[in-house]
Amino acid sequence: MSELCDVSAVELRRLIGRKKVSPLELLDSCLKRIRATDGAINAMVAMDEKAARKAARDAENAVMRGDDLGILHGLPIGVKDLQETAGLRTTHGSLIYKDHVPKQDNAMVARVRFEGGIILGKTNTPEFGAGANTKNRVYGATGNPFDPEKTSAGSSGGSAAALAVGQVPLATGSDYGGSLRTPAAFCGVSGFRPSPGLVPSERPVSLSPFPVSGPMGRTIEDLHLLLRAQVDSDKIDPFAGADSQEIPESLGHVDLGSIRAAFSTDLGCCPVDADIASVFRSRTGTFRSIFAETMNAHPDFENVHETFEILRGLVFVGSHRERLEKHRDLLGPNVIDNTERGLQYSLGDVAWANVEQTKIYKRFLSFFNDCDVLICPAAAVSPFPHSQNAVEVINGETMPTYMRWLALSYALTTALPAAAVIPCGVDHLDMPFGIQVVGPNGSDGLVLEVAHALEQVLATNAETARPIPDLAKLAPK
After folding, report:
1. Is 103 in the active site?
2. Residue from 94, 152, 156, 179 carrying the catalytic annotation
3. Which end of the chain has fewer beta carbons closer than 10 Å to its terminal beta carbon, N or C?
């Protein structure tokens, strides 16, 4: 990789501001990379090149006039296909919306445009974001850049894959049970799940804090740039606007030698493939000594699986009950399964789950009295074939639901964390391996700082550096 589209987002923005790189030149580089790779991975699913080119031309003119420039000025952005984009097809990965062209951006996309981001295209997602395998009946499957027959995970799989091959320097994602974190790990890029409300979004069920929008990039420094454009206090999100969730304008202010880090292979409650557990112990063994203090410990996640399933069911019933009644034939199995299981729960079940989630949240906060961050694997398994809907067996144990293999991420979701994923070399099958750096609600700035500093350390070791896909293997035949 040696093209303009492979340069970091932070450096590209700096060069654009100094009139060293033209937004049009950068757009052409991204489009060239899309043509060279998307036939193999199917990450960028809807585009309006004419509109993007006009936006890039306007961005170039603004630079030449000496206008004040936004945080993202001139940078092409991939937008997850769950997020509405004015004038650009937005399907939510569903046949119900296969021809849907919104008249206006959602609030987060509008902020990205306001800060100068150029919406280049939509990135693929499973139907309504349900499932950690990016495939749907509108666009098909998104392949992993390191092996297109394997999954890029989901539901932000299109964004992660597009970033990994340089189709765009930045992309948006969203996260419920790991929808942003798992794809980042599977594709060898970085992702950040912010505390609820830091990036305001239109929630399907207004009082559920679990779904969040967030940034994705090839590095923490890059995604931090996008996050700065996404952050707002818009009360469209009832959790928005807390001062404690402010993030720094720049990174690089934390000394890892002052940080207390807890390490956990399985959070004490999650199925994790034995080989992945071994890789995690080996990789983390190369850098544990850089912290002021380390410990092997995990929060208390008692009853987390039942709690998450019930509260997830509440959101699915609220979001999809009417669609299930009117359009069942157009829906995929994940949406149907989650909604039907949600309908089986009683008011008593939901009340119990809310109480248990509150207990988990409080215990999680208490855990950080003895450490600053928690580090654990980002995914329980190596990337698997996208022809397979989900992971069915781990270490000989059959998973009770299609979600259980995602417990490493959804257990944390239940505690409302700030969580960053950074690449950490490759696993036992030579596929990307990622780790999570996690803090409690409101610790976004610290988590980003620690993840950024740790990423710099990992980059100096060939065993832990970010893996790069072989573009030649993705070229059109």
Report:
1. no
2. 179
3. C
pLDDT tens per residue, range 145-187? 999 999 999 999 999 999 999 999 999 999 999 999 999 999 9
pLDDT band for position 67 (cuts 50, 70, 90): very high
Q: What angle, 0 to 180 degrees and rounded to 10, lies between the N-to-C axes of helices 304-327 and 407-414?
A: 100
CB 412 within 8 A of CB 188: no
Active-site annotation holder among 29, 94, 152, 155: 155
| Predicted local confidence at residue 34, as pLDDT | 98
Find all residues with CB under 8 Å of 31, minimum gap 6, and list them: 49, 120
Q: What are the tokens at 10?
A: 């932070």
Residue 179 annotated in active site = yes
Between CA 308 and CA 306 the distance in angstroms is 6
| 319 has catalytic annotation | no
CA distance 138 to 159: 17
Q: pTM for this structure?
A: 0.97
The domain limits of the chain are 4-474
Provide the residue type at 308 as one letter. F
Quote the CA–CA distance of 201 and 206 in Å, as a whole number: 10
Rounded to whole angstroms, how far apart are CA atoms 285 and 225? Answer: 30
Confidence band (pLDDT; 50, 70, 90) for 207? confident
**CATH 3.90.1300.10 describes domain 4-474:** yes
Q: What is the sign, positive or negative, of the torsion defined by CA atoms of 309, 188, 195, 206?
A: negative
Catalytic residue among 80, 122, 135, 150: 80
Of 316, 304, 307, residue with least CA distance to 411:
304
More confident residue, 344 or 233: 344
Return the structure tokens found at 461.
Answer: 């070791």
